[in-house]
Amino acid sequence: MGEFSDSVMIALLPTSSAWCKQPLPHMTLVYCGKTDDLNLGNKNEMAKVALNLAMSCCPLTCAVTGVDGYGDDGSEEVLTLQTTPELLAMRSTVEKWNASEYSFSPHVTCGPLGTVGDDIPSEISFDRICVCWGDEQMSFKMI
Fold it and tell me: What are the extents of the domains in the chain?
């Protein structure tokens, strides 16, 4: 995860990532803060919740609603995604760990500004839930 090697998140992983120009394409369900601010008990609980979500949720498809610039300076190009009831239910399950200063806005980061070409997908499907604890990743396949 490079510059995020001290970050913790629970994210959905896409079935395909041809549209993405960076490692670990994902949609963050919840940014949980820094590894130093959390303990092993948090890590274990997050893994259990992610596994339970994967065992109780079907793969999820979200419509792409547009292209936007995110980040403090707008330099990261993202595909914005439609919010669905299923996605909001998943988010509510993990929201207790939210450490983000931003409101929940479903999107996938594609890379630096100008990364997205003309071949924008109309929808993105997600079939795994991942807990990223620094550079360590645990992913669970949704059934």
Answer: 2-141
3-state DSSP call for residue 131?
Answer: strand
Please check whether residue 64 is in contact with residue 120, taking contact to mean a CB–CB distance below 8 angstroms.
yes
**What region, left, alpha or beta, does residue 74 occupy, with left being phi > 0 and alpha being psi -120 to 50 degrees?**
left
Question: Both tokens of residue 109?
Answer: 């980061």
| Distance (Å, whole) CA 70 – CA 121 | 19
Instruction: State whether residue 74 is helix, strand or coil.
Output: coil
Tokens found for residue 123: 């929808």
What fold characterizes domain 2-141?
Answer: Cyclic Phosphodiesterase; Chain: A, (3.90.1140)
Low-confidence spans in the chain with pLDDT less than 70:
1-4
* Cα 31 to Cα 98: distance, rounded to the nearest angstrom: 6
Its pTM stands at 0.93
- CA-based torsion, 70, 24, 122, 55: positive or negative: negative
